[in-house]
Automatic annotation (TrEMBL):
Domain named 6-phosphogluconate dehydrogenase NADP-binding: residues: 3-162
PROSITE patterns the UniProt entry points to: 3_HYDROXYISOBUT_DH
Protein family: Belongs to the HIBADH-related family.
Active site: K171
Protein name: 3-hydroxyisobutyrate dehydrogenase
Ranges of residues in domain 3-hydroxyisobutyrate dehydrogenase-like NAD-binding: 165-284
Length: 297
């Protein structure tokens, strides 16, 4: 059975690591903020004192970190992954990072005799806990074949997107659609609320017609209940849209809808909503229209 190092026990990582343990893997965990490994340790995980410590005895290392800066710290920093990684280790990053950083990690891993896969995921906290994530993977087919069983212990589908960097690019393109869908749902529900339409009735219509989407399915009921407990935070969505904006500029792709959605999430962040679920962006519309979107009034 493979030995796995898992680094990053936040909203997504905790559930992912738990599913590896349930599948019988030997898992060593590390989190930059102490105190998040308790339940995993009770389930059989070992706790490392640094990223390097998590890597030394591991055949596969999975990172699930919030942003590029944090990834750099974990991989390149003092007591980081690259200071201790052994030749032959497969490094898998499931964070949402810039494609350029994914390529830099690939090159450094190769210089250490290791292999790197950028393998971000679709699905938020419920999917991480339920093991129903989808992995989009950039890297060699041979390396992916070696770890596919590990990925499927945490998810329901693995899609090979192409060479290294392709997973990161696909994730930013995907989350561009998610962010735009979230903005569209909030705006449509604000129009309906301003017109005096019952929120629940309107949401039923959304799910029954051409406006239906996975985003609406996941977020509509939360909006109606004014429930903004985090599944995927507004701040992380804004981070992803900013990364996508940089990528699209580099690719010379016009993205007017991306820029509009990014601006809306920036408004939400400036309102102090960053640590709430991304569906809390509807609160910006509620402020503008002077009424709640959810409920019957």
């Amino acid at each position: 059975m493979k030995k796995i190092g898992f680094i990053g026990l936040g909203v997504m990582g905790n559930g992912m690591a738990a599913n590896l343990l349930r599948s019988g893997y030997e898992v060593t965990v590390y989190n930059r903020t102490a105190g998040k490994a308790g339940e995993l340790i009770q389930c059989g995980a070992k706790e490392a004192v640094s990223p390097a410590d998590a890597v030394r005895e591991s055949e596969i290392v999975i990172t699930m970190i919030s942003n590029d800066a944090a990834i750099r710290e974990v991989y390149f920093g003092d007591n980081g992954i690259f200071g201790a990684v052994r030749p032959g280790t497969i490094l898998i990053d499931s964070s949402t990072i810039s494609p350029s950083l994914a390529l830099e990690l690939t090159s450094t891993a190769e210089s250490k005799g290791a292999v790197f896969l950028d393998a971000p995921v679709t699905g938020s906290k419920p999917a991480a806990e339920g093991g129903t994530l989808t992995f989009m993977v950039g890297g060699t087919e041979a390396a992916l074949k070696d770890v596919e069983d590990v990925l499927l212990a945490m998810g329901r589908k693995v899609i090979h997107m192409g060479a290294n960097g392709s997973g990161a690019t696909a994730k930013l393109a995907h989350n561009t659609i998610v962010g735009i869908n979230m903005a569209a749902l909030a705006e449509g529900m604000a129009i309906a609320a301003s017109g005096g339409i019952n929120g629940s009735a309107f949401f039923e219509l959304v799910q029954s017609g051409g406006a239906a989407s996975r985003t609406a399915e996941l977020k509509g009921e939360k909006i109606l209940a004014n429930d903004y407990d985090v599944q995927f935070s507004l701040a992380l969505m804004l981070k992803d849209l900013r990364l996508s904006s940089v990528l699209s500029d580099n690719l010379k792709v016009p993205t007017p809808m991306l820029e509009a959605a990014k601006s809306l999430f920036q408004v939400g962040d400036s309102m102090g909503l960053g640590e709430l679920d991304m569906s809390s962006v509807t609160q910006a519309y509620e402020q503008w229209i002077g009424r709640k979107i959810g409920g019957d009034k």
